Amino acid sequence: MTADAAVTPYKLPVSVLVVIHTPDLQVLMLERADHPGWWQSVTGSQHPGETLRETAAREVMEETGLDVAAYELQDWGYTNVYEIYDCYRHRYAPGTTHNTEHVFGLRLPTALPVRTAPREHTAWRWLPWEQAAHLCFSPSNAEAIRRLARQHGLEARAPVAE
User: Fold this and answer.
1) 160 in any annotated domain
2) Distance CA 52, CA 102 (A)
3) 3-state secondary structure (DSSP) of residue 147
4) Would you say residue 73 lies in a domain?
5) What are 35-83's pLDDT values in tens digits?
6) Are 135 and 145 in contact (CB under 8 A)?
7) Which residue among 5, 7, 102, 137 is least packed, with the fewest CB closer than 10 Å?
8) On the CB side of 138, how many CA atoms lie within 13 Å of its CA?
9) Which residue segment(s) compose the domain that 135 sits in?
10) pTM for this structure?
């Protein structure tokens, strides 16, 4: 935590979502420690004074141990505004109900092992993009993964009836 972050008692309602993926669209998924069964990409709130790219780099390092400088970090140029889940509202200033999430992608050459932060995540796995999108608890995260696939000319297949 930076000195500025320690001064601010509440999180800023501005965050990053970083979809970490390989060229063949394997996507890294992390299971939240505070909500077992909730899987996501790297996410995190901006600290005062940080650029969004700095926030993305810090969050990737904190949550995976990966240094973005060694790979391709791209700002995907769009944002999501969503209502903050009730279970997380206490982290924000009173009356704050919505967050603006800036979406990034981090392309790795291959699926690499990662080092998670135990207080944040209990497990990680690499999955094909369709499975990763389906596993996400966050609709904006799932949509970001589907956008990644569309950028590569792929579309989700309809589920097979049983």
Assistant:
1) no
2) 8
3) helix
4) yes
5) 999 999 999 999 999 999 999 999 999 999 999 999 999 999 999 999 9
6) no
7) 7
8) 23
9) 3-151
10) 0.90
The DSSP bridge pattern shows strands 98-107 and 121-128 to be unpaired
3-state secondary structure of 124: strand
Per-residue pLDDT at 9: 86
Name the band, by pLDDT with cuts 50, 70 and 90, for residue 6: low
- Residues paired with 11 in a beta bridge: 92
pLDDT number for residue 159: 55
Kindly provide the b/e burial profile for residues 70-108, where b requires at least 16 CB atoms within 10 angstroms of the residue's own CB.
eeebeebeebbeeebeeeeeeebeeeeeebebbbbbbeb
3-class SS letters over 48-111 = CCCCHHHHHHHHHHHHHCCCHHHCEEEEEEEEEEEECCHHHHHHECCCCCEEEEEEEEEECCCC
Q: What is the CATH number of the domain that holds 46?
A: 3.90.79.10
What total number of domains does the chain contain? 1
Q: Which two tokens stand for residue 44?
A: 């995190």
The span from the CA of 157 to the CA of 145, in Å, is: 14
Asked if residue 46 belongs to a domain, the reply is yes
Residue carrying structure tokens 């390092």: 61
